[in-house]
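Incident log, structure service

09:12 report received: a user says their structure output differs between two submissions of the same chain.
09:20 pulled the input from the user's history:
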Amino acid sequence: MIGFLRGIIIKKQPPLLLLDVQGVGYEIEAPMTTFYALPEVKNEVEIYTHLVVRDDAHLLFGFATEDERHLFRTLIKVNGVGAKMGLTILSGIEADEFASCVKNNDTDRLVKLPGVGKKTAERLIIEMRDRLDDLATTTVTRSKDKSNISNDPVNEAVSALIGLGYKPQEASKFVLAVANDDMTSEELIREALKNSVKK
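09:34 re-ran on a clean worker, output below:
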């Protein structure tokens, strides 16, 4: 597997990028979010990569960050989402914003992406919710300061249940089933645990 490439940009023609790595030219398909982060042609760059091997081709996809690559890899595991749609989704939305949409059940934002209809948006949210746990944690931690995170009792309660051994999807389901606006994280955890025993 090719994990990353470091080389000189020879050509940028979205979605294709031509990278010279010590005399070997690699054709890489990349989302627009990666193109926005690239330096000008003839400059050196490091690209995180994902190789797709098919019967008729070997396709190399490139990403500016490991979070983007992680999101792409989880997207292509969703039923009905191939590599091309994965690139389209990443081109229209940042990784941390996508994680936020999934976490907040924001289908309205997802259907604005090219090729994503209502059913696909719903499938993305359902199938990606537990898969994006790690990505959401890193991106939220990076984009918000800790005081904002500690003010979200639902997130704290879900994290606590995950720490107790529940699967992320189960934890979210149990917490959301009992959640009220005025509840503290401790109250949410207590009620969610009671609720989980009844199931």
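09:41 both user submissions now match this output. Likely a transient worker issue. Closing.
09:42 reviewer note: Confidence is low (pLDDT under 50) at residues 136-151. The first strand starts at residue 4 and ends at 13.
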